[in-house]
């Protein structure tokens, strides 16, 4: 039982998340690459076909899972041993349920915002507050969190627009 409680600490959490993301990515990649209907047009002609986006997303997921797995392994290997086995387990962090509810609510509002403002502006306005909040929670300070959050949100919105509208030709 004590091992499960310690799994919530950073190296254990990184290992668990890395294994989960890696497993999901590998299963997804196997499913996509063995699906003949998806892979028929992949790499043939100017249209990459419907397999391109899942392959890109699953590849990034696999890379991220491997990075988390390596980070967890390194953290586990270089963490000093516990001083006392009878020390109390750290108290869990406060609940994040309100943040998750706010994210779900903003996801519900996003399609309406896209129809009013267009994809580029709505996606930037959706991502900016969340990225600013995440940076601020890291403890980087308000000004830096604001600058980084807005800059990354703008880059993310532009990248999404380029991939979906320009490269894939999806009309929004």
How does this model look, in words?
The chain is mainly alpha-helical and 172 residues long. It is flat. It has two domains: 1-93; 101-172. Helix content is 74%, strand content 0%. It has helices at 2-7, 10-33, 36-39, 52-78, 97-117, 119-137, 142-167. It holds the Pfam family TctB. InterPro entries: DUF1468. Keywords: Membrane, Transmembrane, Transmembrane helix. This is Tripartite tricarboxylate transporter TctB family protein.
Strand content: under 5%
CA distance, first residue to last residue: 51 Å
Q: Sketch the major β-sheet.
A: none
Q: Indicate the mean pLDDT.
A: 82
Number of strands: 0
Number of helices: 7
Give the low-pLDDT segments: 1-8
Number of domains: 2
Given helix and strand content, the structural type is mainly alpha
Approximately how much helix is present in the residues? over 70%
- Global morphology: flat
Along the chain, the helix and strand elements come as HHHHHHH
Radius of gyration: 21 Å
Keywords: Membrane, Transmembrane, Transmembrane helix
Pfam families: TctB
Protein name: Tripartite tricarboxylate transporter TctB family protein
InterPro entries: DUF1468
Main features:
disordered N terminus, mainly alpha, 172 residues, 2 domains
Write the layout of secondary structure elements.
Blueprint: H1 2-7, H2 10-33, H3 36-39, H4 52-78, H5 97-117, H6 119-137, H7 142-167
Helix pairs in contact: 2-4, 5-6, 6-7
Transmembrane segments: 12-30, 51-70, 100-133, 145-171
Protein name: Tripartite tricarboxylate transporter TctB family protein
Domain DUF1468: 18-171
